[in-house]
Amino acid sequence: MQDSTDQKLLALLQEDSKKTNKELAGKLGLSVTAVYERIKKLERLGVIYKYVALVKPEKVERSFTAFCQIKLVQHTKKNVTGFESQVAKLTEVLEVFHVSGEYDYILKVMVKDMEAYREFMLNKLTALEHIGSTQSTFVISPVKNTTALSL
Q1: How far apart, in Å, are the Cα atoms of 74 and each of 29, 71, 132, 137?
Q2: Collapsed DSSP state (helix, strand, coil) of residue 99
Q3: Residue 9 and residue 3: Cα distance in Å, rounded?
Q4: Which residue spans within the chain are E strands per DSSP?
Q5: Are the beta carbons of 107 and 99 closer than 8 angstroms?
Q6: Closest CA to 105 of 72, 61, 60
Q7: pLDDT digit string (tens) for 53-109?
Q8: Residue 97 and residue 103: Cα distance in Å, rounded?
Q9: Spatial separation of the C-alpha atoms in residues 143 and 149, rounded to whole Å
Q10: What contacts 24+ positions apart, CB below 8 Å, involve 27-36?
Q11: Is 47 left (phi over 0), alpha (psi -120 to 50) or beta?
């Protein structure tokens, strides 16, 4: 649905969404009005659905990353929807994926340190209903971490 100019525009916005329409127009060889209209069209279509600020985890004491795999006790609709609504409310959990395989969910959790992760597990995660078992994997160092989709 997007042409090559839209794809270039999206790449530029994913790199730095604070660029002005004038800066974007200069890079794309378009008028400021044309860039504005393209951005509005992409927003209307839902291609662009949100603008955010990316925060350095170490600057806000959230640089300890763990991936927690979850097995539910049973796969009933009530258990799945109940778990999903509860886990989505946990501020330490950045991403939740319902997956196939040995586990049912993978959670990306970011906290201050191992002690904070232990507290999270004991007081929040394992307090949720419908969890059968968990397994945690801790990140030694990130190799690639991006939010940009290559188009």
Answers
A1: 56, 9, 8, 23
A2: coil
A3: 10
A4: 64-72, 93-98, 105-111, 131-138
A5: no
A6: 72
A7: 999 999 999 999 999 999 999 989 999 999 999 999 999 999 999 999 999 999 999
A8: 11
A9: 17
A10: 30/5, 35/9
A11: alpha
Name the β-bridge partners of 70.
105, 134
Q: Is the pTM of this model over 0.70?
A: yes
101: left (phi over 0), alpha (psi -120 to 50) or beta: left
Residue 12 makes CB contacts below 8 A (sequence gap 6+) with 19, 24, 27, 28
What sign results for the dihedral spanned by CA atoms 54, 125, 138, 67? negative
- Tell the residue number behind the tokens 């969890």, with chain if given: 131
| Sign of the Cα pseudo-torsion (135, 115, 97, 130, in order) | positive
User: What is the C-alpha to C-alpha distance for residues 137 and 135, in angstroms, rounded to an integer?
Assistant: 7
